[in-house]
Amino acid sequence: MHYICLLNNLIIITLLAMNQFSKFLILLSLILIGNISFAQDFEVAPVKLDFHVEPGDNQTKTINVKNHGNQKVTYMVVLADFIPSSDGKRQIMPPSTTRRTAANWLNINPSFFELNPGDQMPVQVTMLVPGDEYGAVWCMLYIQPTREQSSWSVDKALGAGVMVTGRIGVVVHQSPNSNTNHSVKVTGLKDDGTDENGKRNFTATIDNLGDKISMCKVHLVVSNIQTNEEKQYPPVEIETFPKMSRTVELSLPTEDLTTGQYAIAVIVDYGPRFALEGAQIVISVD
Fold first, then answer.
1. Residue 119: inside a domain
2. What is the pLDDT of residues 165-203, one digit of tens each?
3. β-strand partners of 8
4. How many domains does the chain contain in total?
5. Measuring CA to CA, which residue among 242, 180, 173 is closest to residue 211?
């Protein structure tokens, strides 16, 4: 009888543990949902701040941090630079080390705070732009929980007494509305052939020749030269940075290409006030 009771208790404890572990995995897997980010049982919203501050002026935006855990947590806010890569990734750098850094212009209040379970904290992020700065700049802002360390396990990179246990990044962009130097061009389109998954792949190269961070919708359009039949595929949305190139991989099912000649076009839409940009190649399908 005692063995049965112990077994039942063990089963109940195991199921409860599995349930809590499943909740943790679900919460951890929700890396980005819309403009909200979850990690390590805490939430940050929004995860992108777009400033349009004129030189000599300032603007404040708010980030909300919420503790979803069951313990009091101390959080810190740290800054970092990043260099955009041609494939859309970011190379994270120390703050204020790149030419287009916005880290020097930010004031964050508070930058170190505690939250009880279920509580949230508004973090004020103020952009103060010098009087002669009209160009686009950017950086990253990280919200990260910390925990106390003993003196022998101090992380020297963070200073005495704290250790990072996970973080959520917030992208920060700044460009004044008076800066109207938008210019995006498609400078290359290449046929990469068919892969093992039955997709015909193409790579487009898009150059941002202006001084604005431009959001672009990249469309793939296929036209059968013999029948004049045309098909447009759902756009891919990308972000392009000033004086930098961005490569975009596009694909279509090979069954959409029967025998014949096709005009393959890439069309870039970077705003209603600007003309569409594009490039075209012709391929033959046997």
1. yes
2. 589 999 999 999 999 999 999 999 999 999 999 999 999
3. none
4. 2
5. 242
